[in-house]
Write a structure and sequence with these properties.
It contains five helices and five strands. The chain is α/β, with parallel strands linked by helices.
């Protein structure tokens, strides 16, 4: 943490967990907490715009919500299994089942509304 963050009370940003074909089941389907999975592509401008929002969500929700990211081009089996055809796609899971999916860029408030009112409210 930098000195300005220490002085002004800032905190380090939590990074999403990296998910791929090999660890998808253990990290997402077997998670004990709800999961936000951000599926992105390397040349996707909306994905780059969404990235800092996903990092902020990971930081703000901490242990209440697992935040993960998956490179679409590096995880073809999981992409096919989930039926994802475009990026960015954000998929929400609870107890191993998909509960919501957003295709395309949506802002922070949109995702936080889903997390607070649908995902975490149902997980209680």
């Amino acid at each position: 943490m930098g000195w300005l963050a220490k002085v002004f009370g800032g905190s380090e940003k939590l990074q999403p967990i990296s998910v791929n074909d090999e660890n998808f089941k253990s990290e997402i389907l077997e998670s004990n907490v709800p999961v936000l999975l951000d599926v992105w592509g390397p040349n996707c401008a909306p994905c780059q715009k969404l990235a800092p929002i996903i990092v902020d969500i990971a930081t703000d929700y901490g242990e209440r919500l697992k935040v993960a990211e998956m490179n679409a081009s590096a995880s073809p089996r999981t992409m096919g299994r989930l039926g994802i055809r475009g990026t960015p796609t954000v998929v929400y899971f609870d107890r191993g089942r998909e509960v919501d999916r957003i295709v395309g860029f949506k802002g922070s408030l949109y995702h936080r509304d889903i997390i607070d009112n649908d995902i975490l409210a149902e997980a209680k």
